[in-house]
Design goal:
Layout (H helix, E strand, L loop, with lengths): L2 H11 L1 H10 L1 H7 L7 E3 L3 E4 L17 E5 L4 E4 L5 H15 L3 E5 L5 H4 L11 E4 L3 H5 L2 H13 L15 E2 L8 E5 L2 E7 L9 E5 L4 E5 L15 H12 L5 E4 L8 H24 L4 H7 L11 H26 L1
Parallel strand pairs: 4-5, 5-6, 6-7, 11-12
Antiparallel strand pairs: 1-2, 2-3, 3-4, 8-9, 9-10, 10-11
Helix pairs in contact: 1-2, 8-9, 9-10, 9-11
Bound molecules: zinc ion.
The site of zinc ion has 5 residues, from loops.
Length: 333
């Protein structure tokens, strides 16, 4: 490794992460070259792995998202399959060994590359894969195909010609007004429509008896969320759907697991609410985006992690949504 590459890698992982990785997993790298994957446990039957911070790259082998599994006594219910077939296979091995159970059901949070490219490692007889009814549209979208080509470059050899994307065989019976519940072994699982707030096919999953929610990319812990193209208004509605039964633990699609979901939800809500209010007002007052951004009061969020990286982009996305809605309204009047 030359010095420049070494430095880039150090900063990508963070110095501490790099040292830890090097210090505790010397033999591991020799076996499969993947970053360390530690199984976190919540209570007796829930397993979660947490991806590294940052974008997918060859340095982190695409391990940037979280995935979880629940041992029901009659098989594992898995939520998300990680960002490459190799990561998926590793995750599956870990949970099957730790629980002594086989995978029975796989739920896909949404068809974004970092959450489902491990799916081919979960195919097999007796395994049911479930996704949101809109997943089919997203799966067949030109963007999804273009993303695969991009990932084959960026994450080679982890994503290559042998990487197969698989559409879930079963659609969740969810809508804006309806959840789906199914029982397996000792637990009841409730699938909740994410209302297309982050992606058209967002799906959340609650384990009713445990008060635990797998929230996909709709939940952020202690930081400014990445909103991007998502609609802040719909996102708030989706969070309300999730909080109808207040969760005790929330597993986000990225970053730390929340053991204080009420508090973390409050922050995300307050942020989305502010973002949406400021940008709709700006559009109503015919302000330009730059004017609106400069005159808005961001003081309550400025000190939060990810503010600098995400806020301006989030505000711009919200501004575009607000503009689109104002134009649509004008047309119907
Ligand atoms: Zn996503």
């Amino acid at each position: 490794m030359n010095n420049l590459l070494g430095r880039a890698r150090q900063s990508a992982l963070g110095l501490l992460g790099y040292l830890t990785l090097a210090a505790v997993t010397p033999t591991f790298a020799a076996t499969d070259d993947l970053p360390a994957m530690e199984l976190q446990r919540f209570g007796e039957h829930v397993y979660v792995v947490q991806g590294q911070a940052g974008q997918a790259s060859s340095a982190n082998a695409g391990f940037i998202s979280n995935a979880g599994a629940v041992a029901t006594g009659e098989g594992l219910v898995v939520f998300d399959t990680l960002g490459t077939p190799a990561l998926g296979a590793k995750f599956r091995k870990l949970i099957e060994e730790a629980s002594g159970e086989k995978v029975k059901v796989v739920v896909v949070s949404h068809y974004h590359a970092d959450h489902f490219y491990g799916i081919q490692s979960f195919m097999g007889p007796g395994i049911e894969v479930i996704a949101h009814p809109m997943a089919k549209n997203v799966f067949n979208d030109a963007n999804t195909k273009a993303r695969l080509e991009q990932r084959r470059n960026d994450l080679f050899p982890w994503v290559n010609e042998d990487t197969k994307l698989v559409l879930a065989a079963r659609q969740a019976k969810v809508s804006a007004s309806q959840n789906e519940s199914f029982k397996l072994g000792r637990y009841t699982f409730t699938l909740i429509d994410g209302l297309g707030a982050h992606a058209p096919d967002d799906l959340m999953m609650r384990v009713d008896e445990l008060g635990l929610v797998f929230a996909g990319d709709l939940f952020f812990t202690g930081r400014v969320p990445f909103v991007g193209n998502a609609h802040p208004g719909l996102w708030l509605k989706a969070l309300n759907r999730m909080a109808e039964t207040p969760p005790k633990v929330a597993v986000p699609g990225h970053g730390k697991i929340s053991t204080a979901p009420e508090k973390d939800l409050e922050l995300t809500r307050r942020y989305l609410d502010h973002l949406w209010k400021v940008m709709t007002e700006a559009v109503a007052n015919l302000q330009s985006f730059d004017e609106a951004y400069a005159s808005a009061d961001w003081s309550s969020f400025k000190k939060l992690p990810a503010f600098d990286a995400a806020n301006r982009l989030n505000a711009y996305g919200a501004f575009l949504h607000a503009e689109r809605e104002a134009l649509a309204k004008e047309k119907t009047q």
